[in-house]
């Protein structure tokens, strides 16, 4: 049995219990405001405890899950999070376009595809979202406020 | 009444009304194909364009676009594993495994046919029920709505194929997360931690995008492979799409049951249409001879949510038009659009504008059929996306997801929450927790709390003793216990 399989429900339990404790001790919510979250939170905690107990009891007896997802690569995750940095540094229109250019090239795609995707991104963000649909995507870098 | 029906049909043949529908359809399809932009967003975007339009023209424009949005959402759910909007999350469960197995064409065909016919079913039902629905809908008060919403959550355990307890944890966590921010009854901000963003609680779009889109994008980026594995790739042809469409006629029981579930849930004021596809999916699974195979690419798992999802739209129009009470969040916005167009839905609406009510049903029916046909034409092109290598597709999808998440509320913090919920989605996927269950719990959590408070205030602690409430509880228990009857009987005998 993987430790993570137990740690995850334990983390959910800790999250729900902490929120309930903060609500009761720090915010001191009225019964009307707190009753329903309390019921839901206690249900989460009880189910997590039941799951953890069941895992300990079934230790070593469970079969591996069919169709388990492939392992995560650090490089793949880093490419994902890099988009947040691009958007923060350059805004949604130019940040997204430059991210596509850099990420696609960095992953071995041709210049033609990378530049094309980048140009289409500019057309979609600027033309479709900002001009046609009227969505106020930030043109300026987010760090400029 | 027949005169009103004929008058509505005549008005729809007006070239301006037809042009408005034909304009709304492609706009709806485009919005539906963009992850994160839902039917609500579509109506919100398009309402400003209806200023100054005659009521019927404005209705034709909005309803045609609205009908088309869910078709786009189904496509992204099946082909990319990214639900266009919340109800499409139920389609992901079997639709995406079919794509991975090289059966995308079949799944798309089944979804389009089920959507089109389901939408038609809902609209015909709407047209039939409009004159007689008032006393039935009015008999459902807050206790009944509370139990209906709870029943939706209870089906989560059924949806969770391998571990019902994990499904329940996900559902309960979804409800708990939905209770952050202002309390619906007394306006107290709960668990907001001094962060202004949290005064309104967690948002639906970042949660949905994070839970469903991010794990798939990460998997594509990590593996670099296309969505459809090369070894499983069958030649994709229109024949495959047609075969998928014909599969709907091979499963008439699943189709009609799902349509009925969708229409009935859609009619319940305030319950919210998001429940319908999940309940229909659970019903299809329960009544199947091989329920264990659901989740691995069963075509009934695509037909059921798609048929119910579109059938519910006709049903949701019933309380919106007849009572002025929206049947779902999208219908709440549509109610606003009616008022913008100078119409006041409610009991008097049916007396004064019965022809418009029939016209709305016909527009929705036309929108469902026409958008399915348009998607059918586009499907072969869209399926090619599944052959694009993962490391090229993932960054493009990620950018679309981020823009879609941002544009829902124009808030950059939503983008951060997509990453946060993405982490949660990845962990849930790895440890076998039911992500649709969490999303459904989140969608229904606030509704359940509101109906509970109203029920207790209005009927006291014994609010569950109303006859219709007892019937709903009994049916829910029966549905949940029936598949496990052998296990329960065995346990009972061993004692």
Structure description:
The complex is a heterodimer of chains A (145) and B (495). Chain A has 2 domains: 55 residues; 71 residues, no CATH class. The model of chain A has no long low-confidence stretch (mean pLDDT 86). Chain A contains 4 helices and no strands. In chain A, helix 1 packs antiparallel against helix 2 and helix 3 crosses helix 4. With 145 residues, chain A is mostly helical. With 495 residues, chain B is mainly α. Chain B has one domain. Chain B is built from 22 helices and 2 strands. Chain B has a two-stranded antiparallel sheet. Chain B is globular, with a radius of gyration of 22 Å. In chain B, 60% of the residues are buried. The chains are: A mainly alpha (145), B mainly alpha (495). At the A-B interface, helix 1, helix 2, helix 3 and helix 4 of A face helix 9, helix 10, helix 18, helix 19 and helix 20 of B.
